[in-house]
Amino acid sequence: MSRAEQKKRAEAKSRLEQAKTQMYQDLVLECAERLFSERGFPQVTMRDIAGEAGISPKTLYSVFPGKEDVYAEVARRRSMALIETTRAALSGDGTVLERMRRSTRALVGFLVEHRAFFRIMMRESRAWGLLPDGAGSGGWGAGLRLQVDLMREGIDDGVFYEGEPEVMAAVALSTMQVLLAAALDRSGEPDTAAIADEIFVQLQRSFRRLPPFALEGAKAG
Length: 221
Prior knowledge:
With 221 residues, the chain is mainly alpha-helical. It has 2 domains: 1-65, Orthogonal Bundle (Arc Repressor Mutant, subunit A), CATH 1.10.10; 74-220, Tetracycline Repressor, domain 2, CATH 1.10.357. Helices cover 75% and strands 0% of the residues. The chain is built from 10 helices and no strands.
């Protein structure tokens, strides 16, 4: 066998191994996400994940060193996918309010579709508006920055009141979290459009700039 043929065969074998590893990773993450959402992180073991995925613990450890690594990758993949979905909805034509409504529908649609991931976030008891330590460069930080940019644009356009964009963004994310959790806790199949519209109405009430007479009335009261 020539050197060129050996190289070609080695490359083909490497691609096959990479594809095999990717397949195992995708399977593990799908099963782990379901288990973490149902039981919570502390109650799930690597053996549980391997059993759910239908693979041996040895195979599982060959693609993920430990349970923390599985959990972190589930969170990373879903968070980044959510950020890209939101970013895409915010881009393009339209007023600030139109793009806010689009992004709200996109966010709700994503989390309704991936309810296991949403339940994992709820189990963490993390307030979306409060950026966790060390998360500034990850999904949480990126999501907050998208909202900050939107609030700043709304202020510049005279649509939103002149507040602190960072605080307003935190309030927006917290509002989304509370209303989405309440909606998905109801019985029956969730109505994505209705949930998103409810959130959008609340966001407008929170951030729309009031006319002068309304501000005077508030001060007088």
